[in-house]
Each structure stands twice: as C-alpha cells, then as structure tokens.
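To: structure subgroup
Subject: Chain for Friday's discussion

All,

I'm putting the inputs and outputs inline so they're searchable in the archive.
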Amino acid sequence: AEEGEAGSAHTVFRQGVERLLQAATTRVADDAKFWAVYAGYLHATHDFTTELECRRKVLRACQTAGWHADADKFGEVVTALRHLTEAYLQEGSRKSIFSAKSALTTALAKSKDSFELDPRYAELQALLDRVLAASQPAGES
C-alpha cells in the first residue's frame, strides 16, 4: 500500500506543480527565466511538444533590443538557442529542422559583426552544423 500512496502523492504533487506553472504563464509572458524553468519541467515529464513551445518563448524573450551587440544578452540568446536546437533535433521533423536552421542562421547573421571571434559564436556555428547534418538524408553528408 505504501508504494501506491507514494505514487498517488507524486501524482498530486505533479498536478499541483502543473497548475502553478499554468497559472503563472499569464503573468510572466515575457520572462525568459520562467519559460526556461517551465521548459525544463516539461522535458523532465516528457512533454516534448509543449517543451518546444516554451523553448521558443525563451528565445523570443531573450531577443530584446540590442541583443546582437550586448555580450550578456548575446550569451542569453546563445543559451536559449542551444536548448531550443536540442529540442528541435529531438523532435526531428523536417519543420523543426528547418526552424532550427532558420533561427541559428538569423542569430549568426545578426551577431557576426560584434561576436564573430567569441567562442559562443562558434558554438552557434557548431549547432548549425549539427542541424545541417541532421537535415541530410541518411547516407549523405
């Protein structure tokens, strides 16, 4: 009976966390940290479709005015793109691969003048290379 009670308590706790996160979404629409936490929770609960939506919201929230010229903001965008790209690759559809490629290409183009020599810029390029490799039919490179 103890196992059943623990499972039930876990379910009740999980439902409570989900209700809390859902309620918070209306109050923190543009808060990148909130969306990142929510995305992490969704990843842990294997809700990958909703996680992908949250990862897109993280990126949008990070791409504030001047992000491509401000080192701190650029770092936030790189982190957001890293997680978003991983989610896109995990989902794996042609649409997701195209979306990842588009997001990375845009970020690389906008940040090139300010950050081309920054290791984080190289990380974006490496992510794009992974996406491009994933977009190739099996057996091609």
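Points worth raising on Friday:
The mean pLDDT is 89.
The longest helix spans residues 2-24.

D.
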